[in-house]
Amino acid sequence: MNNIKYMKVPFCGSLLMLTMSTAAQTATTEIGNKNNQQDTIVVHTKSQNNFLPGGNSLVPAYLDGHIAYGGCLGMLGEQNAMDVPFNVIGYTAKMVKDQQAKTVAEVVNNDTGVQNVQGYGNFTETYRIRGFKLDGDDMMLGGLPGILPRQMVDTAMIERVEIFKGANALVNGAASSGVGGVINLEPKRAEDIPITHLGLDYTSMSQVGGILDVGRRFGENNQFGARINLVHRVRETAVKNDKRRTTLVSLALDYHGDRVSSSLDLDYQKKTFHGGTMGVDIGGVDFIPLVPNNTHNYSQKWSYSNIENQFGLARAEYDLTNNWVLYAGAGGQHGQEIGAYKLTQDHK
Fold it and tell me: In this predicted structure, what is the pLDDT of residue 131?
């Protein structure tokens, strides 16, 4: 706080003090300006990545490499979440590996806004986004619906699991059951650093498996890439007499030129379920039943499902200018499924 005191002084003295005060103020201002000039720091910033929204290039991950704040928005391509009025987040292959997630549902469990629910009378992984149902076979691959296998999708071929919450039909069209959102899967690509990963896993009671992940880039500027993923996993899970088998073969080819980029994904997946749990129907019960032991198999021993799928995706994009990208994609799948399903019913 400044204290101001008023004093009576002769006129001449007052004029002299005013002159001295003005001169001192001028000198102080000049010194202050010089100090301000000396203390001025000019900072030049540069983006740490070359991500350009609108194409097929994935939004870069941050922190420990588990999360990408953005994802595919249908006709808008890959977008940073901060630039669009939607909620979109991506979970990376590094998170899948660190958490040892084997199916998409195990990855989606990281998002509290999405509930993983079981399909009706079978082994399907179904989801609820903002309270609205999304069937597992309505997930998208590379931004295109209707390509992925039914019931379950293995994570070995997936680079990114992107969850979009919002007006799904606006950006992705009405080809999906998702009203409150959708899940998009982006396949793996060969990286600049060669990848060779061989792994063995043992899960639950006696389920064993092996994986192989190999990626290489070729050409003078590494413009050609190839990546292959192999998975085989078999035998009993944590639930008694629940036997499952998974076989996956995935081949991803890509080309990156100065203005042209293209990719081709060819995949094969076969899953078999024998004696697995498929839920309990308590529609006719007016009390809350006791929760069974989580290793107890309350399903019928003869229930089973054999699912075999061949699916693929081709994409290409051309940079018209620095701000305009022309891109197209097409895909399809051929599936064969046979099974016998029966829900366990709990009555009074």
Answer: 87
